[in-house]
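**Protein of interest**
===
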Amino acid sequence: MINFNYENEFNLDNEAAIAAWLSQVILSENKKEGEINYIFCDDDYLHKINLEYLDHDTLTDVISFDYTMGAEISGDCFISVERVADNAKDFKVSFEEELRRVLVHGLLHYCGYKDKDPKDEALMRSKEDEKLSLFHVKQ
């Protein structure tokens, strides 16, 4: 089950479409959907988590805690809406596109993809692009 939680004023406009897409991503990786929680927050909220749990004194757009057991993926994915908005401007993409990239990025970590070295990061970007192409909003 995919859940969306909000620790700030932000709300997804299309929760059902996003959840359906993320479920499709999970199936496309031959995984089973466990409990996946997305928590939308601001920079301060995520910075505190980064300090407390990872001992990193930096701002970031996403932190994912992986509780996957075998093929059933589960986890908590914290997303700073402020970082996503800034990154969208920096990368010259829409906020919605950057948000979808961050959403799927956390999910791909649960599927076993890493991004700590250049080779892994290249594969992660490729997978993000592949999964982003699966998203279709029904009008």
Q: What stands out?
A: Residues 12 and 18 are 9 Å apart (CA to CA). Helices lie at 15-28, 43-54, 81-91, 95-110, 118-132.
